Amino acid sequence: MSPELVAPHVPVLLDEVIAGLCPREGEIHVDGTFGAGGYTKAILNSGARVFAFDRDPDAIREGRILADESGARLTLVPERFSRMRQALSDRGVDAVDGVALDIGVSSMQLDRPERGFSFQSDGPLDMRMSREGTSAADFVNEADEAEIADVLYHYGDEPRSRRVARAIVAARPIERTGQLAEIVRKALGHHAGMKKDPATRTFQAIRIHLNEELQELEGGLAAAEEVLKPGGRLAVVTFHSLEDRVVKRFLKERSGSVPSGSRHLPAPTVAGPTPSFDAVARPTRAGEREIKSNPRARSATLRVARRTNAAPWSQTQKGNSR
User: Fold this and answer.
1) What is the pTM assigned to this prediction?
2) Which fold has domain 131-210?
3) Alpha-carbon torsion 152, 154, 159, 161, what sign?
4) How do residues 136-191 score in pLDDT, each as one tens digit?
5) Residues 6+ apart with CB under 8 A from 236
6) Among positive and negative, which fits the CA dihedral 177, 179, 185, 191?
7) Is the pLDDT reported for residue 68 higher than 50?
8) Are 220 and 233 in contact (CB under 8 A)?
9) pLDDT tens string 203-248
10) Is there a shared CATH topology between the 14-107+214-320 domain and the 131-210 domain?
11) What does the alpha-carbon distance between residue 225 and residue 34 come to, in Å, rounded to a whole number?
């Protein structure tokens, strides 16, 4: 038996994700957010085959060593995970046994100043997961004040988004992460001992907007529904309430758990589609031991569900629209 593939870092809620997926030898699983390959390595160690998606060319390039070591059981797919159905079909795979999604920015991206995702170390203001398209510098220097304020409010829950947007526009041009962080701190007031850096919400909002992360998540969940076999498992890790709300709503709808109405409203006259997921587990969060060793785990939430044999809702809705 070959030695286990060892991860250089441990991803958040690794044991819980693997327990939810329950990968077995000979199965096919999707790691929709490959990153540094932590989940993929654990799935490979079970004997399963993995199709690992990542739109970040750095992750795909650095994952080639693992792919070579895996004995052809790992296929790297340089795509957004929302396109997994088509990408798998192109590779001769119609259905899989498990899908794992770890939403948001990866440790690799956060820890590299040149990627511009974090203000912990100064770097160019970039934030593009795919290294293509509009950068964070383009956005803060070219978008109008109202658009910047809307992005900060909707994707960062920034209550003083207009004040921050006004300060950003007044300080143009802005090219560095440290520069943007200081502008936000000055606009909101920052002093030593604050529990959370006031620039955090602005960086989160711009990143989510540029990478279309919530739209990608919605697309990825729908794609997982299409590719999972009956009995297949879905495991999704999120890191803030915006993401978790999308996953929670999706699983409630697809499991038939959305309330059918109240005594104050008429009951629905048409039954919804047959539930496409069941066995929706209670949300899981990291314990104190994991949080102590990996502070990023503090905000993580894992949701797991099992695919039923019902048709994907997208197909049902298409059929009903004819």
Assistant:
1) 0.89
2) DNA polymerase; domain 1 (1.10.150)
3) positive
4) 999 999 999 999 999 999 999 999 999 999 999 999 999 999 999 999 999 998 77
5) 100, 101, 103, 221, 247, 302, 303, 304
6) positive
7) yes
8) no
9) 999 999 999 999 999 999 999 999 999 999 999 999 999 999 999 9
10) no
11) 19
